[in-house]
Amino acid sequence: MPDPRLARVLSTLLPQRIVADAFEPAWEDLRVAYLTRRQRLKSPLGMAALRAGYLSLTILLFLDCWRLAIVSWIRRERSAPAGRAHPAITEPKQTERFHMFLYLIRHAFRQLVREPAFTVAALLTLALGVGANAAVFAVVEAVLLRPLPYPSADNLVIVNHRDKQTGITKEFIAIGDFLDLSARQKTFESIGAWGRGETAFMDRDDPYRAEVLGVGANTLDLLGARPALGRSINAEDTRENAPRVMMLGYETWKKRYGGDPTIIGRVIRMEATERQVVGIAPPGFTFPPTATTDVIIPYRFPTVAPAQRKNSWTFAIARLKPGRTLEAAATDLATMSRQFEKEFPQQNLASEYFPVGLRTALAGNTRPALVLLFAAVAVVLLIACANVANLLLARSLGRRREMSVRLALGAGGGRLVAQLLTESLVLALVASVAGLLAAYWGSHALVAVLPQSSDVPGLNDVRINGPVLGFTLGIVVLTTLVFGLVAALTVRSEKAVGVLNASRGSSMGGRARRATSALVVAEVALAIVLLVGAGLILRSFAALLAVDPGFRTENVMTMSVQLPTNRYRERGAREGFYTQAVAQIKAIPGVQEVGMAAVTPLTGNNWTSPFERPEQPVGPGERPPEVGWQLASNGYFKALQIPLVAGRLFDDRDGPNAPPAVIVSEAIQKRFFPNESAVGKRVKLEGDQTAEIVGVVGNIRRAGLRDEPRADMYFAFERPKPSQTTLFVRTASNPEKALPAITAAIKRFEPNAYVSQEQTLAHVASESERVTRVVLWLLGMFAVTSLALAAIGIYGVMSYAVRQRTREIGTRIALGATRSNIVWLVLRQGAVIAAIGTAVGLATGLGTTRFLSSIMYGVKGTDPLTLSVAVVLLVITIMLACYVPARRAASVDPATTLAEQ
Amino acid sequence: MPRELPPLSHLQFLALGVILSNDEPGRVIRDVVADYGVGRTGAAFYQLMARLERDGLIDGWYEPVVVGDQAVRERRYRITGAGSRAWRQTRSFYETVAAAAAQGRLSNA
Question: Model ipTM?
Answer without folding.
Answer: 0.92
